[in-house]
Design brief:
The protein is α/β, with parallel strands linked by helices. It is 32% helix and 15% strand. Helix 12 links the parallel strand 11 (276-281) and strand 12 (300-302). The site of glyoxylic acid has 7 residues, from loops.
Length: 339
C-alpha cells in the first residue's frame, strides 16, 4: 500500500516551482516525491535527504496525488493518463538509460522534464553483451545443460562445435555509448566491425577500424549482429523474417537493447530452421513474458534483462536518477535530460 505524503497537496505546478531546494538545511521544507521501492537499498541517505519519499513498488499502480517528482523503474509505463493524475509533477527521473516506458511528448506537454541514466551503465551492458556473444559462439548454455543433465559421456572432437570469432564481422545496429563499447571489445577478438548509426562516429572508427554501412549491408555482412539502438517507431521489429533471410547462414543475433526491435516469432523460426546459428537475448517485447516459440527454440540463450545488473552499476543508476530529480526540484538543469 502507498503511504500518502504528509505535505500539502499541490494542484498545479506554480507553488512547487517556488519551493526551496530539496535537502536545503535552511528551508525546513521537504518535497513529496515517488521513488521506486526496488532502488531503496541502492541509495544513500544523502541521495534522499530533504525529500519526503513515498516508496512505490513496481507492483503498485501509479498513484494520483501531489507528488512533485517520480523516479520509476523502466517497467512503469507513464502516459498521458498517469501524468494527468500527478498535476504537480515536475520530473520523471527514469532509473534506466532507455525511456520508452515514458510518453516523452505527453510529459513535455505537461511541463514535466524526463531524464535517464546514460553513461553509468555502458561498460556493464557491453560486458553482458559480450557474455551473450561468447555464450552463443561457443554454445555455453548447451554445454552447461549437457553437464548438468548427467548426459556428458566425455570429450569428443565434434561435440558442440562453435564459431571462431577472429576474422569474423561484428555488425552493430546503433553506435552510441553502449554500441561503441561493444565494438571496442571486438578489437582484441580480431573481429571486423560494421555499424549503422544516424551519424558517423569518426573517433570510434579511428580507434577500432569500424566502417559505417547501411541496414541492408549490415544484415547481409554480419556474422554477429548486436542491437544497440532505442526502439524508435521506425525500428520496431527491424529484425523481422525478411531481414533474417538476408543474414549469413549460421549468423548470431544478440539483443541487449529493447525487445521491440525484434520479431520474436521470426527469430524462433530462424533458429528452428537453422538459418540463425544462435540468438542471445536479454530483452523481450512483453517482459517478463517470452514468446513460447522462442522458449522452445534451439540455440537461444535467454537472459532476464540483466544488461546493467552489477551492484556498482545499479547504485550509480539510482544515484544519477536521484541527482536528476534533485536538480530539477532545485530549479537547476538536470545532469542527463533525455534528448
Ligand atoms: C536497461 O534496459 C536500461 O534501459 O537501463
Amino acid at each position: 500500500m502507498l503511504a500518502e505524503p504528509t505535505a500539502e497537496a499541490g494542484t498545479h505546478k506554480g507553488p512547487v516551482l517556488a519551493a526551496p531546494v530539496p535537502g536545503s538545511q535552511t528551508s525546513g521544507v521537504s518535497l513529496p516525491v515517488l521513488v521506486a521501492a526496488e532502488v531503496r537499498s541502492l541509495l544513500t541517505p544523502a541521495d534522499v535527504s530533504g525529500l519526503e519519499v513515498t516508496w512505490l513498488a513496481a507492483s503498485e499502480a501509479t498513484p494520483r496525488g501531489p507528488w512533485v517528482a517520480l523516479a520509476p523503474l523502466l517497467t512503469r509505463r507513464l502516459g498521458a493518463a498517469e501524468l494527468a493524475g500527478l498535476p504537480a509533477l515536475r520530473i520523471v527521473a527514469n532509473v534506466a538509460v532507455g525511456y520508452d516506458n515514458v510518453d516523452v511528448a505527453a510529459a513535455r506537454a505537461c511541463g514535466v522534464v524526463v531524464t535517464n541514466t546514460p553513461g553509468v551503465l555502458t561498460e556493464a551492458t557491453a560486458d553482458l553483451t559480450w557474455a551473450l556473444i561468447l555464450a552463443c559462439a561457443r554454445r555455453l548454455a548447451e554445454g552447461a545443460a549437457l553437464v548438468r543433465s548427467g548426459g556428458w559421456t566425455g570429450w569428443h572432437p565434434e561435440q558442440l562445435l562453435g564459431l571462431d570469432l577472429a576474422g569474423r564481422t561484428l555488425g552493430l545496429l546503433g553506435a552510441g555509448r553502449i554500441g561503441q563499447a561493444v565494438g571496442r571489445r571486438a578489437v582484441p577478438f580480431g573481429m571486423r566491425i560494421r555499424y549503422v548509426s544516424r551519424t558517423a562516429k569518426p573517433e570510434f572508427e579511428a580507434a577500432t577500424g569500424a566502417v559505417r554501412t547501411d541496414l541492408a549491408q549490415l544484415f547481409a555482412g554480419a556474422d554477429v549482429l548486436s542491437l544497440h539502438t532505442p526502439a524508435a517507431p521506425e525500428l520496431q521489429r527491424v529484425v523481422d523474417a525478411a531481414r533474417l533471410a538476408t543474414m549469413r547462414p549460421g549468423a548470431i543475433l544478440v539483443n541487449t537493447a529493447r525487445g521491440d526491435l525484434v520479431d520474436e516469432g521470426a527469430v524462433a523460426a530462424a533458429l528452428q530452421s537453422g538459418r540463425l546459428g544462435a540468438a542471445g537475448l536479454d530483452v523481450y517485447a512483453a517482459e517478463p513474458r517470452i514468446d513460447a516459440a522462442l522458449l522452445a527454440a534451439p540455440r537461444a540463450v535467454l537472459l532476464p534483462h540483466l544488461g546493467s545488473a552489477t551492484e556498482a552499476t545499479r547504485r550509480r543508476m539510482a544515484a544519477l536518477a536521484l541527482a536528476n530529480l534533485r536538480a530539477v526540484l532545485a530549479g537547476e538543469p538536470p545532469p542527463t535530460p533525455v534528448a
